[in-house]
Amino acid sequence: MSYAKPSRRSWAEPWKIKMVEPIRMTTLAERAKFIFEAGYNTFLLRSEDVYIDLLTDSGTNAMSDRQWAGMMLGDEAYAGSKNFYNLWEAVTQHYGYKYLVPTHQGRAAEHILSQIMIHPGDVIPGNMYFTTTRLHQELAGGTFTDVIVDEAHDPANEAPFKGNVSIAKLKRVIDEVGARKIPYVCIAGPVNMAGGQPQSMENMRAVRDLCKRHDIPIVLDATRAIENAYFIQQREPGYKTKSVAEILKEYCSYTDTCTMSAKKDALVNIGGWLATNDQGLYEEARNLVVVYEGLHTYGGLAGRDMEAMARGIVESVADDHIRARVGQVEYLGNHLLDWGIPIVKPIGGHAVFLDARAFYPHIPQSQYPAQALTCDIYIDSGVRTMERGAVSAGRDAKTGEEHFPKLELVRVTLPRRVYTQAHMDVVAESVLEVYEHREQARGLRMTYEPKYLRFFQARFERAE
Ligand SMILES: *Cc1c(COP(=O)(O)O)cnc(C)c1O
Predict the structure, then answer these.
(1) How is domain 65-316 classified at the CATH fold level?
(2) Ligand 1 pocket residue status of 223, Cβ below 6 Å
């Protein structure tokens, strides 16, 4: 092997490894058996049968020595734990909201928010749906409506902010249904389902101006808002010299409330929250959290989990952390682009998204090409990825028809601070191997379909 002289200076992760977790290798024949037994659904594999686990970045992060030290300082009081106050301090300082209700994860905050704010017949506009977010809106009697810019649906379009809201579409929805039927506008940045594509600050301000005129609150899904802040710093004029922490605070300042899955940005394995500037909403949420999660000073979490979250937030807004986090995703994505493999462009913040329609053009969407691709990659190398296409999109709540979204993707998701660059090389080479044999690939047929969020537990067999 020979190495060319570099044309640039490299960056490296701002941490070193103190403890390791051995991982097991499997054979091709074993993996073919495991995925068959798992009904061709990577969610149903046992993790010990996985070599490199890129299923999700949710709760799969490596905590720092400081976070682990914080775990030993858990104040497991039923009420008023000091870790709750530390978490309050971290959230209010870095996200800027006035009030905090902790929850055990993001969907619990979505549940409480939806139950309080949505009434039957309401319409909730958002920049593309997220699975759990939309389901909680629907269970509360609302209807989600997509107001993301058209570019978001085109994997080849290289616009820098494909997570933006189309102000024209949002105006149209407000005109059609009336502001009184819109309990809030739901904004996420970056947009997970669009391939981790960010929203610009300018767009967020425009949404805020429009909503203000109609007196409609904005709820931010802040799950990966720090990655969004990093993209604003890198791509939006006027933000180069601002820190990610400053940008995050400005971004949140245009919104009224946020729900958060701390299992993503906040570098923990479990946790979430609802934060708001609205005192009335805070009081209702503080009431309702007792019903579903636990007292408002622990929200379904142990004191030690809240401490790890408080410390994780502080680490997560550091510029060098987020640069390395997104940098690793770019490293993997650029490998694939160099080899001509179809991925969503620009490369997203938390994952590289393979374009399964372009990968397997001979497999119709009704045979779930993205689901099939996750299986083929697993069989090749033991790398676990997940589907973000027709299986995830599910069925229309009213007609029962399957949604066939324009984006039929495989998400190759990187946990934070877990894998090295060498793991990324192995992943890239496995995707290349599968790509080179793409003509032989076959689609899938669904044999078992759960009623809710079917992608988690659906089972498949090979199509004829
Ligand atoms: C993961 C996620 C959620 C749900 O959070 P959980 O902690 O998994 O319940 C909501 N929104 C987005 C954008 C997410 O990625």
Answers:
(1) Aspartate Aminotransferase; domain 2 (3.40.640)
(2) yes
